[in-house]
Design a protein that fits this description.
alpha+beta, five-stranded antiparallel sheet, three-stranded antiparallel sheet, 5 helices, globular
Length: 169
């Protein structure tokens, strides 16, 4: 998996502690809390601890997405090996004022293409709540197919997958 990506409009790079103000803002948006969950990040220091936890876990990779022209940070694309899933799980979250502009698709497609070209990942998964229609539509646009419904803790999740063999990369 690459560390940095460049698309037509975006730059993606590894999360750092310097991203604490952005992470504080992102994880406290209504969409994050509703669809991902409250991470109890209430101060900049909480955001720094949250980032440090991510950075110290080899199973979690966050790519911060910025606009090339303004260097504005707009979202993240994640790749996480969750203990309840057989394969890595890709995810994305963007600030509300940067939604519906194609950034999530553009950023996720770049990471996904790289993952599926590598020999490390034959299958990539994605999970979302059934109510998160925007994420489901984006996953389908990326080429993911619905696999099944799963339960993790108290959440019923929609599980989507994409296989290297499904792609003509």
């Amino acid at each position: 998996m690459q560390t940095n990506y460049k698309t037509e409009r975006l730059l993606l790079r590894t999360l750092t502690l310097a991203d604490a103000p952005f992470i504080f803002e992102l994880v406290n948006t209504a969409g994050w809390i509703k669809f991902i969950g409250d991470r109890n990040v209430h101060t900049k220091e909480d955001a720094e601890r949250y980032i440090q936890k991510i950075l110290s876990n080899a199973d979690i990779h966050y790519r911060v997405v910025t606009l090339q022209d303004t260097q504005t940070t707009v979202g993240v694309v994640t790749l996480i090996k969750r203990n309840y899933l057989e394969h890595h799980d890709i995810g994305f979250a963007f600030l509300p004022n940067h939604a519906k502009q194609g950034y999530a698709f553009e950023a996720s497609a770049a990471v996904l293409a790289d993952l599926l070209k590598s020999n490390q990942h034959q299958t990539i998964l994605a999970t979302t709540l059934k109510e998160n229609v925007s994420s489901i539509q984006l996953l389908q646009k990326l080429g993911f197919s619905f696999s099944k419904e799963i339960t993790n803790e108290n959440d019923t999740l929609q599980l989507f997958s994409i296989n290297k063999t499904d792609q003509s990369l």
